[in-house]
């Protein structure tokens, strides 16, 4: 007896990598899940931009180092391209970088560009599937400690660490500033909801507003923004 169809539309995934065997494996893994669908693949960053623009996926697995156009530049172009999608009421694709090394400056630059996190190519199938579902739900793939380690290694902290908090996030409301700082410390929506005495739905609304007002693409970028503006001390 076949498995019942998922109650909602499957998460649409595009896989981008110049290794055909790896791509094939990812396709099979994704298609083995009732709630996921591989809607396209690309062997380089330039084709990735075209495929993503055509297929409108929810999540992109993007290799960092590829011929023709690398994953960092492809990520930047995809997110720029997605501006029109937002205006049309569509969602921006979440991008997960694929890498061989955890502490890689290229990973940091990709996240700074707007990627939602990264996974190593030797990750278990279970972890990869969980990562896809996690970023689709609006969370970051990186664990808090891994996030801070990466940021501290490659980010440049603000030289004027004593400047008023308002100079960096004056566009946020007092409540949004509170949520911003909790998010910057790597707390989950549930943990933020508990700390701020609000519902998780309210937290999600605030986080969306914070990202929009600060022109950030992901929660990981919140950590980078906070660190580089000297705000994590609060």
TrEMBL record:
Keywords: DNA-binding, Phosphoprotein, Transcription, Transcription regulation
Keyword set includes Lipoprotein: no
Limits of the Response regulatory domain: 12-136
Keyword Magnesium applies: no
Transmembrane portions of the chain: none
GO molecular function, one term: DNA binding
Domain HTH luxR-type residue range list: 165-230
Gene3D superfamilies, sorted: 3.40.50.2300
Residue list for modification 4-aspartylphosphate: 63
A matching Pfam family: Response_reg
BP GO terms, sorted: phosphorelay signal transduction system; regulation of DNA-templated transcription
Protein name from the UniProt record: DNA-binding NarL/FixJ family response regulator
Biological source species: Glaciibacter psychrotolerans
Lineage, opening ranks: Bacteria, Bacillati, Actinomycetota, Actinomycetes, Micrococcales
